[in-house]
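User: Second chain of the day. Same drill as before.
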Amino acid sequence: MNLPNKLTILRIVLVPFFVLFLLCPGIPHRFLLAALLFGAASYTDHLDGKLARKNGQITNFGKFMDPLADKIMVLSALICFVALGIAPAWMVILIAAREFMVTSIRLVAADTGVVIAANNWGKAKTVSQIVAILVACVLEYIEELAEMQCIFLSSTAKEVFFWVQWSVLLIAVILSVISGMIYLVQNRAVIDQVR
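Assistant: Same format as last time:
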């Protein structure tokens, strides 16, 4: 197994630890730890693709597992956010629906020998999701510090944090929906083959 594929596997292995930190309130500095793990996992996503292209190590395993690892990572975080009351369920449902739809289109295309590469909208969607998750974790960590009485946080600051979290998550949802619609339009021929 080459290094890019190992990095992809590492990204999946980090997910349960990230989820553990998010969902276990007894762990001190849990949102900071979650943000650090998620940031490291996100960086492996950038690094594995870069290394695979640079060293000519693109494999079928990597083509399949890399986007799957991304989806596992992002959806795990967002589902935890629903459980924690950070994100509403409808946001996560829209993002998950887009991911399942695009994956289905890619699978049908692959069955006919067509490879659908990620476009700029898909890349923007991924970046917006990663940024939204990291921003939410950092803001939750600041609130965690306030609860531990390490810092003072005014009610106004908490209100601002709420709207910042809501905004970055909403941007991720909007870009997910737009990129999903673009995938549908661009790959209509693939969809028509299924009928």
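The domain at 3-194 is CATH 1.20.120.1760 (Four Helix Bundle (Hemerythrin (Met), subunit A)).

User: Great, on to the next one.
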